[in-house]
Amino acid sequence: MENENSNNIKERVMETVQGMAGFMNLECQVNLKEEIDDRNNKSLLVSVYTPENASLLIGKNGQNLKALEQILRSIFLKKITDINNIVVDVNDYRKSQTNHLVDLAKQTVTRVRSTQKAEAMFPMSPYERRIVHMELASCPDITTESIGAEPNRRIVVKPL
């Protein structure tokens, strides 16, 4: 029974996203996928594909995307007991941002290795900081630390 309820809620997530896009006169395709992260938390990945005006759903620096994600979490996370998080991606924007972030982190590591001086990166969201920490954890000669307070919290990359 709970699984059927979960499937009904997932269908409602899809309908909600399509409805919100419809208010902006956007046609979109929505795909849902469950994923388990390294901490054994289950996330619902909502992939939205729209042929035009994806920027309306993404917004400046992904602000609209984050807002859409927060709205979906507020509506549905209380109703789905086996899902810990809802992540929304529009036209693979989040995936390309992640790749860009990983590239910036690697460039920072290269500079830190050559100068042997710590370097602070730009302010990031908790999600972005986690990506950088996880990526740089594989560097045995580098350590990372988050400093500051939201919304200006950032990562400092240090040589060992």
From TrEMBL:
<dbReference type="InterPro" id="IPR001374">
    <property type="entry name" value="R3H_dom"/>
</dbReference>
<dbReference type="Pfam" id="PF01424">
    <property type="entry name" value="R3H"/>
</dbReference>
<dbReference type="GO" id="GO:0003723">
    <property type="term" value="F:RNA binding"/>
</dbReference>
<dbReference type="InterPro" id="IPR034079">
    <property type="entry name" value="R3H_KhpB"/>
</dbReference>
<dbReference type="InterPro" id="IPR015946">
    <property type="entry name" value="KH_dom-like_a/b"/>
</dbReference>
<feature type="domain" description="R3H">
    <location>
        <begin position="95"/>
        <end position="160"/>
    </location>
</feature>
<dbReference type="InterPro" id="IPR039247">
    <property type="entry name" value="KhpB"/>
</dbReference>
<protein>
    <recommendedName>
        <fullName>R3H domain-containing protein</fullName>
    </recommendedName>
</protein>
<dbReference type="InterPro" id="IPR036867">
    <property type="entry name" value="R3H_dom_sf"/>
</dbReference>
